[in-house]
Structure of Transporter substrate-binding domain-containing protein:
Amino acid sequence: MKSLKKISIFLVACLLMLSSFSFVGVKSVQAADTDQVQYTVGTTKNISSAIAAMGKNRNAYTNNNLNADVKAYDSTKELNSAISDGTVNAAVTDLVNYAAISKQHSNWKIAGTMPGYYGLVANKKYKSVKKLKGKTIAVDKADYSKYYLKNVLKKSKLKLSSVKLKQIDSEKDRVSALKSGDVDAAVLQDPSISEAKVNGDKVLKRDKTKTDNGNVLIVNNDYAKKNESNTNILVNVIKQEIKSINKTGGYMTANNSFSDYGVSGKAVQKLNDTSVKFKTVHKVKKSDFNKAFKYAKQQKLYKGKISYKKANMKIRQVK
């Protein structure tokens, strides 16, 4: 009896050991299943960002075997926080903002250009840029919007010092401030330009869609090196989404992105009535890079030497 009891205890112990090994195996498989390599792209809410989001909304990333997510933020400040805390490993931003964060985040590099454009929108009573002398204009002083305003004013023989600048982080809030009369004008991108037009405001100046207008895709270089194939897929999908817009000549394929951004139906209609054609993703021109960085340095947003070569990463599909 005692020997049988010992054998029984031994068998139970063996079963417990085997079961523990099986659970370890299950946990390992579960961890491997959920630990998939992915790209998380941070954006603000503009045309450049909507194109990146199209890849998610139209399942283009998934269909190309890339597990990718796109997180949209209301302002450049919020996007930069996501870059700092590691929430995102790629981002759609502009050259001036990239200059501002590049020293703190030296492992982030420029992957290539992104489509997009800026505009100066004013209360309808102002018929020209010159009429804005002494008036209040909403911008984000730490990104491309102030740089854009500087260049627009210069063409009308005005300086930044000839207008009053009001810091408003998000474009949505700038549209609201323009509507309420808190500001006389604002630097905006679409879909915010179209929202302002719905309110009756006037576009005084706007970039051409076929030119490079400072928008860029930036990527955590350490992550990109470890995931070269996924980086190429990310860029390729974005290029394909640009082609889909160019093919239709408008924004119909981006409507889901606009819906996610809370764009009004009337503004979406204006966007859909707009004819656009963009360049595909390509290398940032050295002249554009140097001008943006020199401006950032003048504005004390950037310190140190300006190196085009160090800031740009090599990607097979970006020429």
Observations:
- The beta strands are 38-43, 67-72, 90-94, 108-113, 118-122, 136-139, 164-167, 185-189, 202-206, 215-220.
- Residues 2-34 form the longest helix (33 residues).
- The chain has two domains: 38-116+212-311, 118-206.
- DSSP finds 14 helices and ten strands in the chain.
